[in-house]
Design goal:
Layout (H helix, E strand, L loop, with lengths): L1 E5 L8 E5 L9 E10 L2 H8 L1 E2 L2 E2 L11 E9 L11 E5 L10 E5 L4 E2 L6 H21 L7 E4 L5 H12 L3 E6 L2 H9 L4 E4 L5 H8 L5 E6 L6 H7 E9 L13 H5 L4 E3 L3 H4 L3 H16 L7 E6 L3 H9 L6 E5 L1
Parallel strand pairs: 10-11, 10-13, 11-12, 13-14, 14-15, 16-17
Antiparallel strand pairs: 1-2, 3-6, 3-8, 3-17, 4-5, 6-7, 7-9
Length: about 325
């Protein structure tokens, strides 16, 4: 098969498109012919050699990509819940192997795709859609009285999170980095859009809430936004830090949370929110139903062939993308 392989850690150009041995499924695995793979910041972190809280190295060489969709072409001897030819999708936050024509993956990570959901859409939504789902339904379950501030609101997770927050009836203050992203986020349902190139988001959030502050901040940016995000919160508000695209947040004194209004701080991950089969199926089922009903709009920023994986990583890291970047064979 053809695959994108990382032989050494570093810049995007370490992503090499080459021939690679076809994987052979173990007893509890299915072999999936990949039709589309999602590109995530996690792929960039692993390629650079770090993950949350320090260094986390993949055994080299490895094939990146934790998310995708396609069709089952072979089954391990112990797999009984799936069939040859099934259309399936997967999103495994600590996984890899999706930037390839074939992937052997544990069957419990796979969910069947309804006919109404194209493979490309499923590949675009498995990680970021389920992330938006757990953020809005579990980490801080949004209610109609809530005001949510959402950073990187024009990104893959951000656009989905804006829509899910509106499903819950919450008021949404969306933060974007440039004016061209503002209109797209408004169309997704945001009540207010702050363009950080023009104004201070902390000051604006306070003004928009009459000085009180917001109920929750969903922050995937990290280092450059963390302190101001805390300052946006109303007393008893929650800071949900679920990414670090600008770098990890420096160590800080937790007494700050008390001083700023008995704030709560969450640092969740998708891994723990789909740890059991029931949670995975519930979240995926909601996503697929919303997509089928055309209630949830999944925006694809760009679709690139596997050999352009370096370009895909560069585009995601540049924060220019609006919606999801996909790689296809």
């Amino acid at each position: 098969m053809k695959a994108v392989v990382v032989h050494q850690l570093g810049a995007p150009d370490v992503l090499r498109y080459q021939d690679w041995l076809d994987p052979v499924p173990q007893a509890d695995e299915a072999l999936v012919r990949v039709e589309a793979a999602g590109v995530n910041f996690l792929d960039i972190y692993y390629r650079q050699g770090f993950h949350w809280g320090g260094h986390h190295r993949r055994p080299l060489p490895y094939i990146p990509g934790a998310e995708g969709a396609g069709r089952i072409v072979a089954l391990g001897s112990a797999v009984t819940e799936l069939r040859l030819g099934d259309r399936v999708a997967f999103g495994v936050s600590n996984g890899y192997g999706a930037y390839a024509e074939l992937i052997a993956i544990k069957s419990h990570h796979l969910v069947n795709l309804p006919d109404a959901v194209p493979s490309a859409t499923a590949a675009a939504v498995m990680q970021q859609g389920m992330t938006a789902h757990y953020l809005s339904h579990s980490t801080y379950p949004l209610k109609s009285a809530d005001v949510a501030l959402i950073h990187a609101a024009a990104g893959g997770t951000g656009l989905l999170l804006v829509q899910m927050a509106k499903f819950a009836g919450a008021k949404v203050i969306a933060v974007v980095s440039s004016p061209d992203k503002a209109e797209i986020v408004r169309r997704a349902g945001a009540d207010h859009v702050i363009v950080t190139a023009a104004v201070d988001f902390e000051e604006q959030a306070r003004t928009l809430t009459g000085g009180r502050g917001v109920s929750v901040v969903y922050d995937s940016v990290g280092k450059t936004t963390f302190e101001k995000s805390l300052n946006c919160l109303a007393p008893l508000g929650m800071m949900v830090l679920y990414g670090q695209s600008s770098g990890p947040v420096p160590a800080f004194d937790t007494a700050v949370l008390n001083a700023k209004g008995s704030l709560l701080l969450a640092r969740p991950s998708l891994t723990h929110n789909i740890a059991d089969r029931q949670s995975l199926e519930r979240r995926a089922s909601d996503l697929f139903q919303w997509i089928a009903e055309k209630k949830l709009d999944v925006r694809i920023d760009s679709t690139l062939p596997f050999h352009e994986a370096p370009k895909a990583h560069e585009r995601l890291a540049s924060r220019q993308s609006i919606g999801k970047i996909l790689l296809v064979p």
